[in-house]
Amino acid sequence: MGITPLQGDSLPEADESFDFGPESRQSSQASSSDGGKHAGAGHRARLRERMLKGGAEALADYEVLEYLLFAAIKQGDTKPIAKELLKTFGSLSGVLNADPNALQRVKGVGETSAAALKSVSIAARRMARSEVIQKPVLGSWQALLDYLAIDMAHLTVERVRVLYLDTKNRLIDDHHVGDGSIDEAAIHPREVIRRAMDVGASALILVHNHPSGNPEPSRADIQITQKIAEAGRLLGVTVHDHVIVGREGHVSLRSKGLI
Q1: Where does residue 171 rank: exposed (0-12), middle (13-18), buried (19+ CB within 10 A)?
Q2: CATH of region 22-126
Q3: β-strands 203-209, 159-165: how paired?
Q4: What letter does residue 225 receive in the DSSP assignment?
Q5: Which of 6, 125, 162, 259 is a good FRET partner for 143, with 20 to 30 A between their CA atoms?
Q6: d(C-alpha 235, C-alpha 51), whole Å
Q7: Model confidence pLDDT, tens digit, residues 37-59
Q8: Residue 151 in contact with residue 128, Cβ under 8 Å?
Q9: Parallel, antiparallel, or unpaired for β 238-246 and 203-209?
Q10: Where are the domains of the chain?
Q11: Which residue, 173, 177, 179, is CA-closest to 190?
């Protein structure tokens, strides 16, 4: 279903070239008169200056999207597109985590614009992951939660992962078990523990998301966690926790006394 454009705004079409600032426009501007400079250059310059000098809160969410869209749309006002994206997907994180095909259903967003927005999401995931890799997970618990929230909170399907840890509680294997509800049809306790033995893990953390947004555990979540923990005890593999992630936050089953 197409998205109806905002009334009264003339939305620029997506341009399949990148433009992050004046450096990338020098060659094209050299052959243009002053009157040929694209509309809104002053606004773009002011937005760039505010971003560079003002810190994390200098720009509103729609202005952050405006600036990201400059990368793909060389001329015209990107504010209507930015505001329509927020209206369609609900939040900045909703936009950045949206499927590229869904982004392109918004008037003015082409393939290059969608790729520019997607690249930010990828960069955020990799930055968060870098804070977890090669560090004791239990000593970097908030960094782990931040990574899981960025990576999984906005998924539209339920995804099950197992984080396998070495004797120093460093991540050695981030295993994607599968997509679907977390019951014994999707995750088998013996298989989870067998993989721990195969990769040389001494401990693990179960992780999955609730697409509904509410991270509260279901009865099935609790039961499968307890079965895996019991199977691990028999073979010397510790289940540190089961973390459930949703848009509304996260829940630790260990913190709830359920492991």
Answers
A1: buried
A2: 1.10.150
A3: antiparallel
A4: H
A5: 259
A6: 53
A7: 444 678 888 888 888 888 778 88
A8: yes
A9: parallel
A10: 22-126, 137-252
A11: 177
Written as six digits, the tokens of 32 are 């243009």
222-256 residue pLDDT tens: 999 999 999 999 999 999 999 999 988 899 999 99
| CA-wise closest residue to 89 among 148, 146, 44, 154 | 154
Q: Which residues pair with 239 in a beta bridge?
A: 204
Nearest to 201 by CA among 253, 162, 234: 162
Q: What secondary structure does DSSP assign to 81-145, as a single string?
A: HHHHHHHHHSSHHHHHTS-HHHHTTSTT--HHHHHHHHHHHHHHHHHHHHTTTTSBGGGGHHHHH
Residue type, 147: Y
Of 105, 101, 131, 100, whose CA–CA distance to 116 is shortest? 100
On whether the 137-252 domain is CATH 3.40.140.10, my answer is yes
All residues at 6 or more sequence positions from 66 whose CB lies less than 8 Å from its CB, including other chains: 47, 78, 79, 82
For 70, 176, 243, the CA distances from 147, given in Å and listed in that order, are: 28, 15, 12
132, two tokens: 């977890």
Q: At what angle do helices 61-70 and 41-54 cross, to 10 degrees?
A: 120
For 204, the enclosing helix (H) or strand (E) is strand 203-209
